[in-house]
Design a protein that fits this description.
Blueprint: H1 5-8, E1 14-17, H2 23-34, E2 38-43, E3 54-58, H3 64-76, E4 81-86, H4 102-122, E5 131-135, H5 148-168, E6 174-180, H6 186-193, H7 208-220, E7 225-228, H8 230-241, H9 243-271
Helix pairs in contact: 2-7, 3-4, 4-5
The structure holds NADP nicotinamide-adenine-dinucleotide phosphate.
NADP nicotinamide-adenine-dinucleotide phosphate is lined by residues 19, 21-25, 43-45, 60-62, 87-90, 110, 135, 137, 180, 182-183, 185-188.
Protein name: Alcohol dehydrogenase short chain
Family: Belongs to the short-chain dehydrogenases/reductases (SDR) family.
Domain Ketoreductase: 13-186
Length: 273
């Protein structure tokens, strides 16, 4: 992928965005372009719709060699990156106890290894005052029954982001994470269809644009961590400190989640989704 056009007549600050073809990514592209940025839209097939101020980039994040060669192209073209927004993610609900190991490396690769590798390779291109944003998940705090690998990858990503922030503080690069609960995107629908946790429905799912707006805000005014909805974030943080209490109130939460799921599905059926 040649990137020379970004340095020969540059222009807008450049943001590298992964998961650009996804539900949240698509909304993010619109917001970032409207905010005066140029978006390097990473997706598996590089098939984000062509538009001004967007450069589609094909890169399969489950393949470290592809990440290396794509970032090498950016390095050779000396494209300065004002920000890196990690939004790609994948969930394959699977109850532990079976020997189906296929989803393990796929989820860990996209959700955890790729953001780490991409950040390392991008950092030489990120100037002082640059930004790194991770679209994490409430699963980084709430252990999700039936999605233990996804949960492990998001717990790991939170740890990486918090350590990274300390490493980059002397360079003036800010690191932020947003932790959404359920978001109404293709990922949530796949998760429901494949037996994902009803804890997703403790509150009504956010819209993808709610999360895109938070990322846009974090680029302007960085903050270490933001939870959406904030009420779920407070509950999750308190419960994480007291796993015993968490286990005690879990049946109540599951009951509430099941009710929320039924309500969400009824809404979807009504809307003909
Ligand atoms: N939806 C939710 O309920 C929810 C809740 C909490 C957190 N999140 C997080 O929000 C982020 C965005 O998710 P979303 O809801 O927008 O889901 P989505 O619509 O399924 O989008 C996910 C994106 O990740 C990309 N991706 C998956 N595997 C990839 C790979 N091997 N290489 C490159 N890209 C890959 C997908 O690319 P393709 O288009 O090529 O498939 C897609 O663009 C994820 O990190 C997710 O964990 C979502």
């Amino acid at each position: 992928m040649p990137f020379s056009h970004l340095t020969s007549h540059p222009v807008r600050p450049v943001v590298l965005l992964t998961g650009a073809a996804g539900g949240i990514g698509e909304k993010l592209i619109h917001r970032l372009v409207a905010a005066g940025l140029h978006v390097l839209a990473f997706s598996r097939r590089g098939d984000t719709p062509l538009q001004q101020h967007v450069t589609p980039v094909a890169c399969d994040l489950s393949k470290p060699a592809e990440i290396q060669s794509t970032m090498e192209g950016l390095r050779k073209a000396s494209v300065p990156l004002y920000a890196v927004v990690h939004c790609a993610g994948v969930i394959t609900p699977q109850r532990m106890g079976t020997c189906d190991t296929q989803g393990v490396s796929a989820q860990l690769a996209v959700n955890l290894e790729a953001p780490i590798l991409l950040t390392m390779l991008a950092l030489p291109l990120v100037p002082k005052e640059g930004r790194i944003v991770f679209v994490n998940s409430m699963a980084a705090l709430v252990p999700l029954e039936g999605s233990s690998i996804y949960t492990a990858s998001k717990f790991g990503l939170r740890g990486f982001a918090l350590s990274l922030a300390q490493d980059l503080q002397p360079r003036g690069i800010a690191v932020s994470s947003v932790f959404p609960g359920a978001v109404d995107t293709p990922m949530l629908r796949r998760e429901i269809d494949n037996g994902g946790s009803v804890l997703n429905f403790l509150t009504q799912p956010s819209t993808p644009d709610d999360i895109a707006a938070i990322v846009e805000r974090l680029l302007k005014r960085p903050k270490s961590e933001i939870f959406c909805p904030s009420s779920d974030g407070i509950l999750a943080q308190v419960m994480l400190m007291m796993p015993r209490v968490w286990r005690m109130i879990l049946p109540v939460l599951l009951k509430k989640g099941l009710k929320g799921k039924k309500k969400y599905l009824a809404g979807q059926n009504k809307a003909g989704v």
